[in-house]
Amino acid sequence: MMPNPPLGVLFHWMGGLASASFYVPFRRVRGWAWETYWLVGGIFSWVVAPFLIASLLVKDLPAVLREVPLSTVLWCYGFGVLWGFGGLTFGLTMRYLGMSLGMAVALGYCAAFGTLMPPIFSGEFTGKILGTTSGILILTGVGICVFGIAVAGMAGISKERDLSPKQRTAVIKEFNLKKGLVVATFCGIMSACFSYGLAAGGPVREAAARHGAAPLWQGLPVLIIVLAGGFTTNVVWCATLHVRNRTGSQYFRGPVGVPLLSNYLLSAVAGFTWYAQFFFYTMGEVQMGTYRFSSWTLHMASIMIFGAFWGLALKEWRGAGTRTMRLLALSIAVLVASTLVVGYGNYLSTRAPAVARVRLPLTRK
């Protein structure tokens, strides 16, 4: 299958929309502690959806998984465990900072680390990226993306200054800037491990290909292993919170008026929506061709763009001043530009490979 970067960008935007939207159903859950609805949603996003979707689209899935080398399983699972720490603190980031500012800080770190570390560790960064015109253009797009996320963070901080403490807590009930920034930083760095897990899953994709899986679906078995690691981390943490807060019984009963069926359905919708981001991610990654590492930047940028729009829709920016709203608009424009630059760099590598492979001097003679 020939790469198609414009289609890949579209897939990544669809994944970004899913990622930016998944927490919205959680906002309508009633009477459950965070650890309860987070784990219920996680069961659907990290266990049910990966196995269900992969079983439907990948031929001989059990045989594919059996052929994967143990070392590959351990690397993918291990990175998933580390990513799990970022995943569970992402929920805390949303609680303390809200969708707009929380995503800006967490995804800024995640975009930088998750995009650049895989090619650096594989030894491809100097020759494959810095040594080609397409690679430099894509790297420029990565820089633009990080700048756009930084501007979004500036907008969030500006908003925090515009609002009174009462106004902040009216929109984000547990708003806490200092605690939120610490949690978001940790979240962003650890969340980048998901990118490492996907990069380590090459042998899994090869096994899927041997069994006749279409190129678009070859990354789905990788998600099963990586997400199993994340599920492990989250189960341990949520179980700890259940013991500490005595909230374990909420799965079966709760205070009068708690809509159990509604809570389960909303958490399931949130879980499947969350999984959809990486369903589309694996599809988009295949379309990017030689520079698949750039998929992580496209994913982060699209999450930020749609996250900003959700923040507006949920009135998180209500009461913000003119300067703040201008910063928000600028961040969205810069992020859109970053996706276009990265997409164009990938397009050049597929349409003009001879040009893309031209070596550029790194130093002046």
Strand and helix map with partners:
Layout: H1 5-21, H2 34-57, H3 61-67, H4 70-121, H5 125-130, H6 133-162, H7 165-171, H8 177-191, H9 193-199, H10 202-210, H11 220-245, H12 260-287, H13 295-313, H14 322-351, H15 353-356
Helix pairs in contact: 1-12, 1-13, 1-14, 2-11, 2-12, 3-10, 4-6, 4-8, 4-9, 4-11, 4-13, 6-13, 6-14, 13-14
Gyration radius (Cα, Å) is: 21 Å
Terminal CA distance reads: 41 Å
Quaternary form: single chain
Number of domains: 1
**Average predicted local confidence, pLDDT:** 83
Principal-axis shape: globular
Low-confidence stretches: 353-365
**Helix/strand/pairing class, anyone?**
mainly alpha
- Beta-strand share of residues: under 5%
Major sheet, described briefly? none
The tally of beta strands, per DSSP, is 0
Helical fraction equals over 70%
| SS field, number of helical segments | 15
Pattern of helices and strands:
HHHHHHHHHHHHHHH
3D structure, described in words:
The chain has one domain (5-250, 268-356). 77% of the residues lie in helices and 0% in strands. The chain is built from 15 helices and no strands. The protein is globular, with a radius of gyration of 21 Å. Helix 1 crosses helix 13. It has helices at 5-21, 34-57, 61-67, 70-121, 125-130, 133-162, 165-171, 177-191, 193-199, 202-210, 220-245, 260-287, 295-313, 322-351, 353-356. Mean pLDDT is 83; it is low at 353-365. With 365 residues, the chain is an all-alpha fold.
